[in-house]
Amino acid sequence: MHSLAAADAAHARAPLPFYRQLYFQVVVAIILGVLLGHFEPAYGAAFKPLGDAFIKLIKMIIAPVIFLTIVTGIAGMTQLSSVGRVFGKAMAYFLTFSTLALVVGLVVANVMQPGAGMHINPAELDQKEVSSYVAKSHDMTLVGFAMDIIPKTLVSPFVGDNILQVLLVAVLFGVALAMSGNTGKPVLNFLESLTVPVFKLVNIVMKAAPIGAFGAMAFTIGKFGLGSLLNLAELVATFYITSLLFVLVILGAVARACGFSVIKLIKYLKAELLLVLGTSSSESALPSLMEKMERAGCRKSVVGLVVPTGYSFNLDGTNIYMTLAALFIAQATDTHLTLGHQIALLLVAMLSSKGAAGVTGAGFITLAATLAVVPEVPVAGMALILGVDRFMSECRSLTNFIGNAVATVVVSRWENALDHQRLEAALNGAPLPAAEPSATALDSGVLPQPTA
């Protein structure tokens, strides 16, 4: 086992120069990717495997990170009843703010009218590419989603890509381990020791982040081009502005009520946010988010439950996108939607957004599933936004990521599982209180030693 003091000693060294800090390297990689994709589109698009490979590496380590964090956190709880309480509070938060995000998208679309005046005839649109997303959406049902949470075997979640299956197995195993008392101590000690090499593996994988961000950004710009943004600039701008206001105003108010600043939280997570921006995937920063939230004073058991669950149920950015995009299509195709139609759209989106967890291209697929149930809006209209969906996916991922970070702090505070002194120090960039590493994982390029 490693003591906290030993971890402090391991990190008690001068900060790395800026050019060796990972967030700076990711910024440079994104800029280079944009330049290559813009000036040499064919070459830029060819770098897609770099971004895909990095995402696969991250997904490779997500399952063990979640499992170890949750199991060791729950097994160390003195009262197992708190597991259900934390989960209940988290789900109440997710349901409230996910619904609020849908309402925000609906209101903004009605006020801004980004699709008005386009007068598009849906019959004239090319539906070939859209059809593949519509086909995938037919497999998404709420019952099917709930059944899919239960894995076939105890170990099958570790060879799949369903975060909720890992979460379920980890919670059950952690509870069973806690109920085992002294008999389960050797297993708990082993798992706590296992976190050391696993987090070192995370550190190794994160060194490839600039390469992954470069490849993903070069492909995006090379494939779709900066020009494609100009065609639907109003929709893209409306979505980005709406998401920004949701984060700063709504989440900012929640953060302020809980005693912290969402701006400072964003600054604290700047390296992870840049990584999400470069890869258009919030999953790419999931391990680092869990580690940073714990270091900022959120109890391990709360982090282990809230973050993975939030990645499936707290999709604020995706929800804003769904109602905003649906009404944009309706406006562009001169489809009149009554208030009743819009409320029906909202209710369907509330359900379909939960069925998109773990699905690649979840935002676009979920939109297809929603429109399929609300026949007033032509599904063929999705062809209008297909070209810029990739650019909006970056904003979806960033908003989802920030939303889950805020949720983790809020639920920790509700649960009296938040070290306010550590949170304040972390958000202000000050040295952390006794016996915790003072450098962040992505800022220093070194992850802390998990401790027993």
Plain-language structure description:
The chain is mainly alpha-helical and 452 residues long. It has one domain: Sodium:dicarboxylate symporter (Proton glutamate symport protein), CATH 1.10.3860.10. Helices cover 70% and strands 0% of the residues. The chain contains 22 helices and no strands. The longest helix has 32 residues.
Morphology: globular
What amount of the residues lies in strands? under 5%
**CATH level 4 superfamily:** Sodium:dicarboxylate symporter
Number of domains: 1
**Name of the CATH first level:** Mainly Alpha
Give the radius of gyration: 22 Å
CATH-derived topology = Proton glutamate symport protein
Task: Calculate the terminal CA-CA distance, rounded to whole Å.
Answer: 6 Å
Structural class: mainly alpha
Largest sheet: none
Q: Look at the structure and give the mean pLDDT.
A: 77
Q: Please, how many helices?
A: 22
Instruction: Give the fraction of residues assigned to helices.
Output: over 70%
- Name the CATH architecture: Orthogonal Bundle
What's the total count of β strands? 0
Low-pLDDT stretches: 1-13, 355-360, 435-452
Order of helices and strands: HHHHHHHHHHHHHHHHHHHHHH
Detail the topology: elements first, then pairings.
Layout: H1 4-11, H2 22-39, H3 41-45, H4 48-75, H5 81-112, H6 128-137, H7 142-148, H8 163-179, H9 185-206, H10 209-224, H11 227-231, H12 233-257, H13 262-268, H14 270-279, H15 286-295, H16 300-313, H17 316-332, H18 339-352, H19 362-373, H20 386-414, H21 420-427, H22 441-444
